[in-house]
Automatic annotation (TrEMBL):
Domain Amine oxidase: 15-459
Location within or outside the cell: Cytoplasm
InterPro entries for the chain: Amino_oxidase, FAD/NAD-bd_sf, Protoporphyrinogen_oxidase, Zeta_carotene_desat/Oxidored
E.C. no: 1.3.3.15
Biological role: Involved in coproporphyrin-dependent heme b biosynthesis. Catalyzes the oxidation of coproporphyrinogen III to coproporphyrin III.
Protein name, as recorded: Coproporphyrinogen III oxidase
Pfam families from the UniProt entry: Amino_oxidase
Reaction equations catalysed: coproporphyrinogen III + 3 O2 = coproporphyrin III + 3 H2O2
Major place of residence: cytoplasm
PANTHER family with a match to the protein in the record: PROTOPORPHYRINOGEN OXIDASE
One annotated GO molecular function: oxygen-dependent protoporphyrinogen oxidase activity
Length: 466
């Protein structure tokens, strides 16, 4: 790549695409042109900061993990430092969260791994485990490389209640999916690894917890003061990329020297030629763009399904009478549209004020419940307000304001075997084309950042060999 000016396209302006663009800027020679194509009118994907009653409230992801499983910093924290935002990282208060079960808010049992306990004695009546089901049969729980659903493994060892009252709400808070449909390897990779050697689920959970290195005194989560949109804007600026908004990439064609992008409306198409491409878009548009150049990869990628969710934020008057919690999760069996709630300025001390409004943010909808999200904003708000009142045990006052954020098809549902399908898709890609983002490597800001950076590294290595 030395001495020859290159052009690299990043298709998708979410956090994975922007992280890729920053890494490309850091690794490529001066003069390399990086173009980020985002078909919507704004960068950031599901990182979007809104405002309510003068308080910044996230319309998407509200935080990210501070640490990595190996004991280092997460990729999101490293990116924040690279962008000069390390002094703006804030952390949640040490307030507990709860589970809404049978008309009461019960403490979430301590010491679980995404809801899967390593010690059944800590459940304290929240869920009744199956009697003596987690026996040592003399062989590991799963074979090397095998993938099963989280629900299949946990039900077989701990029974239905542990899945439905603990694991489902924990996974639902992240993926909006059910444990029976979600891949163990994607959603709980540490547990998948230890399940290949341990003979009981209890021992596999404990081994996974032991291998996950926690640094004493280090916070678990972090956010950016002022909102996640600051991270987005800073990444776009640091990348030095040319940003193309509102112009969808409709086709991707292999050329003798690289790739041709066809953009814009069908009656008046535009083209752009580049040397390499990073696809950082959801599964369906990725499959469409791969259809000509890598049809087998397109088929594997396009199999991924998504769940739709909505967020409602409401500004309640001071002294609204909420329990002293950071929020709560709701198991699917409770039948509510609300699956989780956060008491925003209780959870985040930097947003608290003695006379300010009480901000509540609720997440609505799970996989398969798209029809329940179809009513108007006003109707969804009214249902959420009524359900929250019932869940906390007292009638909430009317808010001074609210908003609804809909994320149609927003959360990937990783069925068992997802990792193998993605590995096969990547192995079948033509040189100079890389995949990044939640469609491929998992949800969460650190995972998406790391995915974008790996894609950028792959592209750089390809270009260096030209």
């Amino acid at each position: 790549m030395r001495g020859v000016r290159k052009r690299i396209a990043v298709i998708g302006g979410g956090v994975a695409g922007l992280a890729a663009a920053v890494r490309l800027r850091d690794r490529t020679p001066a003069g390399t042109e990086i173009i980020v194509y985002e078909q919507s009118g704004a960068l950031g994907g599901k990182l979007r900061t809104g405002e309510l009653a003068g308080v910044p409230v996230e319309r998407g992801a509200e935080s990210f993990l501070f640490g990595a499983p190996d004991g280092g910093e997460s990729a999101a924290v490293s990116l924040a430092r690279r962008l000069g935002l390390d002094g703006s990282l804030v952390h949640p208060a040490a307030r507990p969260a709860a589970l809404a079960i049978g008309g009461r808010l019960a403490p979430i049992p301590a010491g679980t791994l995404v809801g899967v306990p390593g010690d059944l004695s800590t459940l304290d009546g929240v869920a009744l485990p199956a009697s003596d089901a987690d026996r040592d049969t003399g062989r590991p729980l799963i074979a090397p490389g095998e993938d099963v659903s989280v629900g299949e493994l946990v039900r077989s060892r701990y029974g239905d209640q542990v899945v439905e009252r603990l694991v489902d709400p924990m996974l639902g808070g992240v993926y909006a999916g059910r444990a029976d449909g979600l891949s163990l390897r994607v959603t709980m990779p540490q547990l998948a690894r230890t399940a290949e050697t341990e003979h009981t689920l209890r021992d596999a959970v404990r081994a996974a917890q032991t291998q996950s290195k926690r640094v004493p005194g280090r916070p678990v989560f972090a956010a950016v003061e002022g909102g996640m949109s600051r991270l987005v804007a800073s990444a776009a600026s640091a990348s030095g990329a040319r940003i193309s908004l509102g112009l969808p990439v409709r086709e991707l064609t292999r050329t003798r020297d690289g790739w041709r992008l066809t953009l814009g409306p069908v009656p008046a198409p535009q083209t752009d030629d580049v040397d390499a491409v990073i696809l950082a878009v959801p599964a369906k548009p990725a499959a469409r763009l791969l259809a000509d150049g890598a049809p087998e990869a397109a088929q594997a990628v396009g199999a991924l399904e998504y769940a739709s969710v909505a967020l409602v934020a409401m500004a309640l008057p001071p002294g609204a009478g909420l329990p002293d919690l950071s929020g709560f999760l709701v198991p699917p069996g409770e039948g509510t549209l609300v699956k989780a709630a956060t008491f925003v300025n209780r959870k985040w001390p930097h947003l608290a004020g003695p006379d300010g409004p009480v901000i509540v943010r609720a997440s609505l909808g799970r996989a398969g419940e798209e029809a329940r999200l179809q009513p108007s904003d006003r109707t969804l708000f009214a249902q959420a307000h009524a359900e929250l009142s019932k869940l906390v045990g007292s009638a909430l006052p009317e808010p001074s304001g609210f908003w609804i954020q809909r994320w149609g098809g927003g959360l990937p549902q990783y069925a068992p075997g997802h990792s193998g399908r993605v590995a096969a898709a990547r192995a079948g890609l033509p040189p100079g084309l890389a995949l990044a983002g939640a469609a491929f490597d998992g949800v969460g800001i650190p995972v998406c950042v790391a995915s974008g950076e790996r894609a950028a590294d792959d592209v750089c290595e390809y270009l260096e060999e030209l």
